[in-house]
Amino acid sequence: MTPHHRAPDDHDEPALLRDQFRQLLRYRPLLVCGVVVGLLGGGYLALGGDDTYTATGEVLVRSAISDPFAAGSTADKGINIGSERQTAVSDTVGTLAAGTLLKAGDDVTARKLLSGLQVTNPPNTLTLRFTYTAAAPEQARARAEALAVAYLAHRKARTEESIQNMSDGYRAQLGPLEEKRDLLEDQIEAGAEDDVSSARANIIVSISELSRKISELKALDTTPGYLNKKPVAPTSPAGPGLPLLLGLGGVVGLALGLLLSWVRLVFDPAVRSPRELVRSLGAPLLGTLPRERGAAGRLLAIGRGTSRLAEEYRAVAFRLAYDPSFAESRRLLVTAPRGDNTAAAAAAANLAAAFAEMGRDVLLVEADLRTPSLARDLGSGSHEVRPPRWAAEEGGGWPARGRTHVDVPGSGAFALIPGTTVDNVPRALTSPPVGRIVAEADRAGNVVIVLAPPVLSYADAVALVDRVEGVMIVCDPRAVHRSDLERIREIIGASGGSVLGALLHPGRRRLGRTERRAKPTRRRGGGGPGRTAEPDAPEISGDPTETLGLRTFTQPAARR
After folding, report:
1. Could you tell me the residue range of the domain that residue 434 belongs to?
2. Do 287 and 223 lie in a common domain?
3. In this predicted model, what pLDDT tens digit does every residue of 180-201 receive, in sequence order?
4. Which residue, 26, 359, 530, 548, is most buried by CB atoms nearer than 10 A?
5. Beta-carbon neighbour count of residue 64 at 10 Å?
6. Which Gene3D superfamilies does its entry note (predicted)?
7. Same domain? 155 vs 296
């Protein structure tokens, strides 16, 4: 049995991230659409919106103090800068500024005026920054300055009102004390006792204290603050320009494209990576066939000179040869998940040629009895040979009707049992002659490769699994679904077989595009300059042997 295959470590986070990023790049149209939408949005914001201008002024807030030049005196006593910032955007300040602007010819309501104002406070300062945005530079400057001046006027009026209220309160306390003092003085003049003089002295002290407080209030500096930076009319529109908006739009569009690609990736039923294919199929990846120009339309890649495609087939054959399960049985069932079986037929033929290069006696059985085409695709001029002796007892039907000999130039030869159309396919696949042919792999040095129709399209492959056991799945990773691979694994396991591995190939559509890009000039006979010779086709000739008997063969002449 094949040893348990361990999937790649799921905790390899860098590899997982790289894999996911490569999967997202599969949906390039979504990425391109996202970037285009972002660029269009950035261009619309830059060109379709109205230009706005911003003017900024700064106000330094201070509290009322009696002597600003005295040691230890500070201008931040009792100032809550957060409350002052709320006051700057209040309706009272807006109404004062609107009245000032109305005198200058700018008729605007307080609510509309405050809608373009933004007041901020730089950290660790007593500064309020008035930023106003308007449709014209001069309008932005005038409104920003009006609002700043209105805030200072409102704050000064509020301070003076507070001082006046406190002074009135002190004066209200001072009146009764003065009347009581005059009464006590009249009693003293009339010869009152000493306790009256003491009370008079206490009242005089209180009167003096109240008078001092009133004097201090009158001496307070009520300056609310200073306009450190007067607003200046801006010379250019505010906000990001066209290049910056296009850049931001491109970044946002790329993020949108990645999000759409991720959503598409989550709901994509197709196999997204070799890692996921291995996990779904429960078998290793034997190889990945490269995209090769000029390979379309030709079944055999081995025997046509050195190419990447031929070397990949040889590598898969060597890997199978050293697989313990295959080395024990030397039987291989080649099939596809569903749909077209062309790639599976090419894989079966090239693996047969690769095993023939190793010196094995190879028998290729085409078990596709619904649309047989392997003999036609391998070449013309095939000749049936005398069937084995036991075939006469079976009535000469498929697969005992005959065999053909396929010569692969420079590589070797293998025997082929082509498929034929029969009336009852299940009965033909489960007949005793099929078992006798598959049993030829029990002989030392023999290899039997069976080509079956797609396993999910017909039950033909399932009918052969119990005899062949080892199965290789040939599929296009972008066309097969994860659920298909899981179902194939369950079907083959329930039938008593095992999946030896998977062979990936590029889709026919991609191969077609590659072929259209490269159209070499061919010649049929001798060639001249600028012409490419037609490669030799494999020769199919009669084989007089009853068994495989392909260990000894004559190497074809070297091609010029």
Report:
1. 282-520+536-541
2. no
3. 888 877 777 776 666 677 887 8
4. 548
5. 20
6. P-loop containing nucleotide triphosphate hydrolases
7. no
